[in-house]
Each structure stands twice: as C-alpha cells, then as structure tokens.
C-alpha cells in the first residue's frame, strides 16, 4: 500500500520508488506529468514572489536555482504567496555560481518584505496632528506603534535597496551606482506598497519603536547610531510616510 | 442568475470590473486571497460590488490522508464570510502529505476507505463554511487500482454529504483520452441534478507522448471537442453556470470575453429548453 507521504518523496525525487505499488505508478509515462506540474508550480511561485531577484539574475538562472530549491525545500504552506520565506534568500547566497553576487540575499529579503507589506492587515496611518497636541514631555513618553505594513532593513555593506528598487521598477537600471551602505522603508498606508531610503538612525528609531520603546528611548537609539540626527526631521519624515498607526502613553512601571 | 463566467486574472482586473454582460460572473482561486489585508482583498471587495464571484479552492487536499489543515480552513471560511461568493468549490484530489504541500491535484484510488475519508473532509469543510460546496472531477493521467466507478463514487459522495459536482468537461475529455474511454458516454451517465456548475478550458499534448497523453494545461482556447461535449450536456441537462478557465498564454481580456460569448450562446440555446438554474445562494 502506497502512502501519500511516500508518493510525495518519490515525486520530489527524494527517494526511488521502493515498493511494487509505487513502482507501478512511477513507471507509467504519465507520472512525469505530476512531477512536472509540481515543480513548475513551485518555480512559478518563486518567480512571482521574488521578481527583483529574477530580473537581476535572468530567467534561466533563476528558474534553475528555483528548481533546485523546490526539490530541497518543498512548500509547507498551501498559500504559495509565502513560499520561499524565509529560506530562499539564504539558499541563493549559498549557490556557488552566485558567489560574486553578494547583494542577492539582501535583494531577496526585500522581495520578502515587499510581500509582507503588500498582504499585511489594513490600518489607518497615525496623523501627525495627533502628536502635535502633546507637550515635549508627553511626546517623549509615547510609544509609537509601527503600521502593520511597515517593514525596514539596513544593509551595511551594499546598496541593496537601490539594486532592488531598480530591478523592481525597471527604472534607471543602467545608471552608475554608489557602492555604499543603504536602508529602506516599505509601507502601505493606503493601497499600494511605497518605499523610500532610510538612514541607519531611522532604522534604529524604528527598531526601538517595534520593541515597544518610548519615543525618548527610540530617539536615544537614533542618536547613538548617528549623533547628528535631527529628531524633528526624523519624526516628520516617518509620519509623512505613514510609518505608524497609533501612539499611546507609556505608563511607568508597565511591563513590555 | 449566473450564466457564462471567466476565471479572473490580475492583469484583467480593471477591465473585468467594468465588464457588463448578462449572467457574467468571475471565479478566483481562493488561495491568492488568503491574506490579512491589502490591495488583493480590496480588489475582491470591489469585484464583489460589481459581479457575482466564485471561490475555487485548489489546495484543501480533500482526498489527503492527513487531516485537513485547520488554519487553512479557518482562513477560507473567513474569506467566504467576507466575499459571500455565489459559488464555492474544491477538487477531488490531494496536495498535502507528510508536512509538505505540492502545488498539484494528485490522484487517489477510489475505494470505500477513500470514499469515507472524502465524506468526512467534505462535511468538515461544509460545516466550517456554513454552506454546501461543489467538488470538481479531476484530470486523470495514471491507471490506478480503483474499486469504485467514478460516477458511482461521486453520486455516493453527493448523497452522503449534500455536495454537488463541478463538472469539468475538459478534465473528462482528456481523462477519457488518456485512459481510453468514451467522454460523451461518461458525461451522459452523470445525473443532471448532481451538476451545479461547469468548467471549460484548453489542454495541450504531452511533449514526448503527443496526443496519447493530454495535459490539463489551461493555456489554450477551449478545444472544439470540449465545446461539443458542452453543447451536448447543456442540451440534455439544461444550462449551468459555466466558466472558461485560462491560466497560461493569457490573451487580452476582449479575447476571453469573446470566448465566453460562445459559451453564453450555448447556454441561451439550452435555456429555450429548460430554465436557467439559479446558483446556490450564499
């Protein structure tokens, strides 16, 4: 008797058919139809999920890599929109022929963050006017909740955000590139995901907010990262982008 | 009343939203909309305002040996509540086993054991969704050791669970071709009142085996032989909500609407014989 789990392993090429019943299936020429459909479904999903990577490396290279990944890491979730998260970026980094493309893992991570932002829960963006009513002391004690769709990342070694953005939009692809550290903020305050460059101090500020820290503590984190940080400009920029969804007063002694 | 519908492709969203035709409806794969928020759900909300929708699941794995994925079923139930689709359907197939999900509709042997398993899963699904579902007959490629005749099996499932049949005529055509039986005779044996909706799609020939092995590729217009099966069924059983599926080599929206018009003509000719069947209300 063939179990479905055994059949899955044969379909993925993990094992050879080891029973008469399995061999009776796998020996039929039509068995390849299932194998091809499964692998094509996985590869198509990865190509749709990692469009910036696919454009950078070219379709053939991408589909070969995706095929290898699919056999090694078959999907576990029926919602293929999440397929490749979180393993595909690190898998790409480990491919010998991609050894020179040090930015590929980061580009793949931004494709992951874009989808996370695209499918996140809807929520209103915090209006700057809400914060304007607070005294400086009150503001310092607020905890700003990042918008459910807000994602950010800092890349210390390569201009991954510029590479990703050019690949994603297919704009300015041939232009010269300053090889420097960069950060990116992605957020979807209304319908479409938008993104903009993000300084390291702003990343530190958002990391602190996401950790439940107050504005005062987040500001300290930003200043520790870059003592030149203009905190009013930082907050204004993040609010304008719709990065937060709510503000609430931190109560002294409250556990977070 | 639903007449001829189209599978909705994201690239056609704006045109589909604006399209107007008697009995027009759209089908989407539920899995593409099982998200917490964002534009995908907003698109569906907008579509729902303009057109009847059908939610077609491709991954519930009703025929799987593993239990149904409770989180997936719950998410599907949430989507059904939100969109209140006119039709909800799934497949007589499996796609999940041993912790893996394979994006395909995998075959099973029709035995009394698998019948009972499918009955349990269909009942569990219908209970979670609060409504009956339609189950689609699969495409067959492999000769398996079945104990049950396919139509007897589906009739039994329907009697035990109250589900209906989404009769995919392209699947019947290519299965009959691949396994060597008569598609028209098979369709003639399907009790008319079992069928709640129809699917039409294109297929392709296997690159190695040619026409001896037809593949349910959904990447071409509906084949003439499948149109004939459609006309034949509608003449016998009367019209049903009927969908044109296209998932590969997707042409311009107008081209799909023209193909849909052919289906509409067949349904209207059938209407002269029998009243249009109303879709199962949400």
Approximate strand percentage of chain A: 5-15%
CATH secondary-structure class of chain B: Alpha Beta
- What is the helical fraction of chain A, as a range of percent? 40-55%
Q: What is the spatial order of strands in the main beta sheet of chain B?
A: 1-2-3-4-7-8-9-12
- Over the alpha carbons, how many angstroms does the gyration radius of chain A reach? 23 Å
Kindly describe this structure.
The complex is a heterodimer of chains A (256) and B (282). Helix content of chain A is 50%, strand content 10%. Chain A is mainly alpha-helical and 256 residues long. Chain A folds into two domains: 1-101, no CATH class; 121-256, no CATH class. In chain A, strands 2-3-4 form a three-stranded antiparallel sheet, sandwiched between helices. In chain A, strands 1-5 form a two-stranded antiparallel ribbon. In chain A, helix 7 (104-118) crosses helix 10 (160-169). The longest helix of chain A has 19 residues, at 31-49. Chain B is an alpha/beta fold and 282 residues long. Chain B has helices at residues 13-18, 39-50, 70-83, 112-129, 150-161, 169-179, 183-188, 224-237, 253-271, and strands spanning 4-7, 25-29, 53-56, 87-91, 94-97, 100-106, 134-136, 164-168, 195-201, 204-206, 210-215, 242-245. In chain B, strand 1 (4-7), helix 1 (13-18) and strand 2 form a beta-alpha-beta unit. The A-B interface holds A 3-5, 7-9, 11-12, 25, 28-34, 37-38, 41-42, 45, 74-81, 118-123, 148-149, 188, 191-192 and B 31-32, 34-42, 59-61, 64-66, 69, 72, 75, 94-104, 106-108, 141-144, 178, 206, 208-209, 213, 215.
Key phrases:
heterodimer, A: 256 residues, mainly alpha, 3-stranded antiparallel sheet, 50% helix, B: 282 residues, alpha/beta, TIM Barrel, 8-stranded parallel β-barrel, two-stranded antiparallel ribbon, disordered C terminus
């Amino acid at each position: 008797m063939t179990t479905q789990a055994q059949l899955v392993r044969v379909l993925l090429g993990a094992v050879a058919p080891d029973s008469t019943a399995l061999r009776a299936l796998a020996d039929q020429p039509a068995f390849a139809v299932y194998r091809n459909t499964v692998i094509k479904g996985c590869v198509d999903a990865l190509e749709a999920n990692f469009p910036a990577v696919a454009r950078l490396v070219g379709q053939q290279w991408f589909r070969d890599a995706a095929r290898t990944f699919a056999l090694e890491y078959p999907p576990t979730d029926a919602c293929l929109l999440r397929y490749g998260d979180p393993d595909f970026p690190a898998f790409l980094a480990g491919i010998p022929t991609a050894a020179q493309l040090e930015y590929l893992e980061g580009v793949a991570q931004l494709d992951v963050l874009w989808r996370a932002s695209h499918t996140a829960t809807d929520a209103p963006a915090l209006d700057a006017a809400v914060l304007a009513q607070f005294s400086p002391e009150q503001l310092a004690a607020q905890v700003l909740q990042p918008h459910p769709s807000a994602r950010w990342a800092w890349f210390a070694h390569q201009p991954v955000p510029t590479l990703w953005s050019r690949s994603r939009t297919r704009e300015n692809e041939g232009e010269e590139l300053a090889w420097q550290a960069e950060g990116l903020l992605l957020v979807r305050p209304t319908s479409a995901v938008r993104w903009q460059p993000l300084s390291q101090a702003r990343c530190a500020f958002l990391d602190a907010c996401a950790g439940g820290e107050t504005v005062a503590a987040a500001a300290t984190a930003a200043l520790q990262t870059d003592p030149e940080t203009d905190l009013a400009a930082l907050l204004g920029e993040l609010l304008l982008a719709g990065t937060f969804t709510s503000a609430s007063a931190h109560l002294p002694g409250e556990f977070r | 009343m639903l007449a001829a519908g189209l599978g909705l492709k994201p690239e056609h969203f704006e045109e589909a939203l604006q399209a107007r035709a008697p009995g027009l409806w759209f089908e989407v794969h539920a899995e593409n909309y099982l998200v917490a928020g964002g534009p995908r759900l907003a698109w569906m909300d907008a579509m729902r305002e303009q057109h009847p929708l059908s939610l077609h699941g491709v991954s519930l794995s009703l025929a799987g040996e593993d239990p149904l994925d409770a989180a997936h079923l719950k998410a599907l139930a949430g989507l059904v509540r939100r969109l209140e689709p006119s039709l909800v359907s799934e497949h007589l197939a499996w796609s999940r086993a041993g912790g893996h999900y394979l994006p395909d509709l995998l075959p099973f042997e029709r035995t009394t054991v698998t019948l009972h398993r499918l009955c349990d899963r269909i009942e569990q699904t219908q209970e979670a969704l609060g409504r009956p579902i339609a189950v689609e007959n699969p495409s067959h490629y492999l000769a398996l050791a079945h104990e049950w005749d396919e139509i007897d099996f589906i009739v039994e499932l329907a009697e035990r669970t109250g589900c209906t049949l989404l009769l995919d005529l392209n699947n019947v055509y290519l299965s009959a071709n691949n396994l060597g039986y008569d598609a028209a005779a098979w369709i003639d044996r399907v009790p008319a009142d079992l069928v709640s909706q129809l699917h039409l799609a294109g297929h392709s020939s296997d690159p190695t085996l040619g026409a001896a092995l037809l593949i349910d590729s959904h990447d071409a217009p509906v084949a003439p032989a499948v149109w004939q099966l459609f006309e034949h069924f509608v003449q016998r059983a009367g019209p049903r909500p009927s969908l044109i599926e296209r998932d590969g080599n997707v042409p311009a929206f107008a081209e799909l609407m023209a193909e849909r018009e052919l289906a509409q003509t067949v349904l209207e000719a059938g209407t002269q014989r029998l009243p249009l069947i109303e879709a199962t209300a949400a």
